[in-house]
Automatic annotation (TrEMBL), chain B:
This is Cation:proton antiporter subunit C. It comes from the Archaea. It holds the Pfam family Oxidored_q2. It is a multi-pass membrane protein. PANTHER family: ANTIPORTER SUBUNIT MNHC2-RELATED (PTHR34583:SF2). The chain crosses the membrane at residues 6-23, 35-59, 79-97.
Amino acid sequence: MMDFIMANAPALLIAVPMLGAFALPLVGRLGDTPRNGWILAVTLITAIIAALLAWTVLTGGPVLYTFGAASSSDAIPADSGGIPIRIIFTVDAMSAFMALFAAFVGFITCLYSVASERLSSGKDGYYALMLLLLVGILGMVTTGDLFNFFVFLEINSLAGAALVAYRIDKGVSVEAALKYGFLSTLAGLMVLYAIGLLYGQYDSLNMAVIASRMSYTMLDKVALALLIAGLALKAGAVPLHFWTPDAYSMAPAAVTAFLVVASQAGLYGLFRVLFSVYGLTLNYVTVGWAVIILGVLSMVVGVTMAIPQKDVKRLMAYHAVSQSGYMLLGVGVGLVVLGDAAAMDAFGRTAMEGGIFHIVNHAMYKGLLFLTAGAIFLQTGTRNLNKMGGLGHSMKWTMLFFIIGALAIAGIPPFNGFASKLMIYESVFAFSPVIAVIAMVVSILTLASFVKVFHAIFMGPQQPKYADVIEVPRPMLVAMGALALLTILMGIFPEQIVSTVIAPAANALIDQSAYVATVFGGV
Amino acid sequence: MIENVPYFCAGILVIIGLVVIVTKKDMIKMVMGLALVEAGVNLLLVATGFISGGVAPIFTNAPSTAMVMPTVQAMTLTNIVIGIATTALLLSFVMVISKKYGTRDVTEMRRLKE
Amino acid sequence: MNMSNLVRSGANIMMPFILVYGFYIVVHGHLTPGGGFQGGAVIATAVVLLMVAYSRADVFASIPKNVLKNSETAGLLLFIGTALLALTAGIAFFGNWLLGAGSLFGTPVAFGINPGDINTGGIIPILNIAVGIEVLGAMGILLLVMLGGMKGDAE
């Protein structure tokens, strides 16, 4: 049994949540308890498979999975003329790392939903879409085929947009969903156009094959621009961030926490295209600076837009834009020095590790913050900061989790945000002191903003209109607690996590030839 | 030159679609613009697989004549399916919005900003 | 509102032909242009024909939404189940475990250019049928919801 799962882990990673989603209408007929059990079992099994896959990859190198072949390692059939013709999943350390925490956040958000959505109608559709969103994210991060990547991107966008509209709420959330769905589809079409251009030139959809044949012609530059624009839009980077505050603030809290991961899958796609498909053929200094500028703009614009917001989830959404700037900045610095081995060893590698570490940290603490905001909304019925106050008396656990999340996002030790931000500051300072100073100022502004939010929500005397507010149900507390625990643990043991998980992921991005060899080398 | 016409058409369709999306204020027309962009992308995909004088790739054991590329056709079909799902989802959003707001005009939708 | 008698009779006569044509496209998906999605879409157009000819209440009464929903679920489960069975046969996910097995859809393909035998293709026809069932359900629901102008809950 164990061998079976290990051998087919990449396929099961997609198949299990898909099966879970498709069978949901049948299971949902049995009632609420079986449905909750089913959804938790499916997401937990997916997370376990992702963990097993990550373990395999970290110990034994990249895993290849060929769909539809007689043997899953048979990437290049004998009669195919030396090119892979089937859809191939190429799971290297970066993919495994993304899949692992995406599956984990999927489990946590479903656990949270069990309690937070217990009174809503249409739960079959809700959970089916959650699982499909999980499928979309996992597929995007594990696939090695460009067109397959597009298909999963569209699954991701459609499920995400439908989930944003889940609570129709006088049409406002549908408006946000329309915006999100429209722009994601446009982003998807840009990506597809680029894929068409690449396919027309290189006769293959496999990323490794395209990488090995890449000659960086004019058409490739057009394709690159389209890919960057489309994936940056999906990742919510400034100046393509305008859907983020609407979609994040209108979706149910659990969905928002998961949408953060969905955007990061777009970020993963961007990094994968830049490093693994284009790699050294790229005009990497120019493109790297473009990524850095995107990152710095996201950081600054995000945080300045966040400060005046009155809606707590909208405020957090702008902070999410701001934080994704750090990831772009860290990886962008790595891209600028891609061809310079000395600079790469001096600071480029650390910058990339910091950027990648920040992805998982962000998913943890931002997920936690969105979940606490959802808990407050569930109990008080408002997201307006001016109408809240004094909730610290009745919602002590939520307050504790909020403090952990807020300190982590502001980069205060010993939480995980500090660990990754420190890596980014140090390495970026060696690269360009000005940008490092900007990053630190943004961090301070983030702290100031969250102190204000904390004061507005929890401090002050208990208000009479919230006298009967009680703590949220236990599954929600467990979900938030798990994220809070990880936020602290990853802040206390950053070296161990960086050396075991993050460094291989960064190396997998930097070493393009290893990615190509995974497919061509034959296993 | 004549064989490049599909690529130009694809580009023109995409541009028309983008112009429609940017200039029209009715949401249904904006979704139609998106469908035009999609049609342009589909045309580009099909055009890349075309070989002059090639035959349809329906063989049980392929003889060695020139065939048009089936992969891009599969891709186009997949994109058509995805496009139908997207258009249906977006149009149902427009339906709900016009029911709740009483308008389909994007410039009159300001509820999110309040 | 009901259309005239002529339109309704016309719809009644057309109905079986549309259904048969749709199922033909589904079943012959591995031999001729078409396949599960296209055939399913053709079948779903039968719903449109009914919507044109008959009143909304009549259509809702004759096509229960639950049937369409169930067929959607059944199609999806058949699809993923067929793909998963490949794993138990010891080959990769979506592997063609019926190919050349001799039974249903398992006849080996004849050599050379030939019109094709419907009994070939392994799991491909089965996947086509699964997709056909799924698409007719999903598109049917979609058309019912949209043309009926009902409250569109996000499908």
